[in-house]
Amino acid sequence: MNVQKLLKLAGATALVLGCLNAYAQPQAASNVTAQAAEGASPSTGDIKAANRQLVRDVRRAFRAAKSQGLRASNVTVRANNGAVTLTGSVTTAEQVDLATNIAKGVPGVQSVTTHVAVRKEFNGRGSN
């Protein structure tokens, strides 16, 4: 009778250990899958940081081009995964082309969309 109880206990222990092992397998696999997915695609925070850095790089290039005649203080720069959009205004058509070409030359910029208008400078004196 003691042998029978011992066999039942051993069988129940094997069953419990088997269930625990089977339960642990999907968790380990899902963790590996989640880690692989994280490595394959950047997080939202990483994408936002890269976009902010690209905007800073384009603005820095605009400041460096001031000696070429670019006055881009009224130009807004937005970036989205390498696609840069310029909006705002400058005083001459040449500055629109210059701003577009400078933005295209910044490392990491894949495309440039320009919505920059040419507007005469307003100095605030002598109006009306």
From TrEMBL:
Q: Which InterPro entries match?
A: BON_dom, Lipoprotein_DolP
- This chain belongs to the protein called BON domain-containing protein
Which organism's genome codes for this protein? Paraburkholderia antibiotica
BON domain segment(s): 50-120
Origin: domain of life: Bacteria
Signal peptide residues are 1-24
One Pfam match: BON
Q: Which UniProt keywords apply?
A: Signal
Q: Establish whether keyword Signal is in the entry.
A: yes
PANTHER family in the record? BON DOMAIN-CONTAINING PROTEIN (PTHR34606:SF15)
Tell me the Gene3D superfamilies matching this sequence: 3.30.1340.30
